[in-house]
Structures
1.
Amino acid sequence: MHSLINELQNYVIYHFKTEEDLMVKSQSPNIDLHVMEHELFRKKVEEFHHSYYNNNEELLNEMISFMRKWLIIHISGTDAEYADSIKDTLGIQ
Ligand SMILES: [Fe+2]
């Protein structure tokens, strides 16, 4: 469990920074709202980390549920909205 939380924290630090830099560079729409969703995710991972060290038995189920919603709503929704502008900026078809 500890390594999973560490992976999530690494994901948050690296992936969000890269994504946010690309959004700014490509002048993607709704950057503020997108960054706000990232910030909510960051806080949730911090909560998971805190719960882990307080032996919260519901942690695993809560993490799975949260990650499932994140994959559906953010990655396939919010992230997809700016994909075209990033592709244009990077010269990808
Ligand atoms: Fe995102």
2.
Amino acid sequence: MEITSELFRKAYEQMSDAVFLLQGKSEIITSNPAANRLLDQYEVNLDDFCTFCNGYTSNFEERTCLGCSLRKRVDNESFQLFLNLKVGKNIPFSASYTLIDEKAGISVLILRNLTQQQHTEQLLKQKTMTEYVINAQENERKRLSRELHDGLAQGLFSTLIELRKIKYMTKKEDYESSLSEMDSMLATTLEDIRNMAIELRPSSLDDLGIFAALKAYFKRYEQLFGIHVVFVSELYGTRFPASVETMLYRVTQEALTNAAKYADVGEIEVYLFKTKQSIVLEINDQGIGFSPDHFTAQGSGLGLLNMKERVELLNGDFELRSEPQQGTKVLVRIPIEPKGGRTT
Ligand SMILES: Nc1ncnc2c1ncn2[C@@H]1O[C@H](COP(=O)(O)OP(=O)(O)OP(=O)(O)O)[C@@H](O)[C@H]1O
Ligand SMILES: [Mg+2]
């Protein structure tokens, strides 16, 4: 017991967390060296933290004073708040308040500096994001390389063989049939190159905006998959920032490709509209659906993740609703910033 309390005393003195033993609302009975250093460096007044702290983090906001856990002296709950250094900066702390003797009104307040922890979290998040972007780029390159090799290069190679054969032809009919064969092979290859260029980045997206680009995409989609697209939008001619238009286009493309691959439907509905606060994109199919909480992706499984990332990068909300046999709905909401802001 002696040894244990001696060890606890050492821990109390050497730890980097600031520990205050308080009586009543704010009288400090004792504090450890880290707490004394904190009082030296920060503008702290235990009588009224409120004057000095810069808000705490609730479930709704990063910095708020509404229902402050410190003011309420919420027992045994840790929360994040921000303290002012005497030299100016705001530093994030985690705080916890525990009532240890209710009768005598004694409690312990522990404050831990979160700067390093938040820095590490940020680095990790950045690293994951970079890895994700690199992976996505690599996958796209693989797909392009396959398409160049298996599609375009094969088409040109066949035409080349046909061309070489001509040298040895003696009959006019053979010669003419070969020429017409080459004509149609080159026309197909040319069409493939055009389609690939459009798929990479349709020029209509830059020149005419999201409405026109989607219209053109739906037309190609209907021809390719035989699935009818019902497009409802009043945004003809409305322009949004390039990042928003690209996101709307890519999300629609992925959702429609998924529907063609998995949903087994003959029709898809796409709604694109603007409210006062946001741009909304909704894509519905009444197909076979799936269970978003437990499913095994049938392809590489990057599509849904990609959509979510793209939307969240623009501070938007991404929602996927689906159930087996109940169809699938993809819902995207992008906030419109006040005039002069990002998305208006
Ligand atoms: N509209 C849909 N109807 C039915 N199932 C769907 C639909 N959309 C997605 N799914 C299911 O969700 C899975 C994950 O979709 P996701 O787009 O993430 O990956 P993927 O299409 O399998 O591969 P990738 O998009 O990377 O080529 C799909 O494999 C499919 O099982
Ligand atoms: Mg997909």
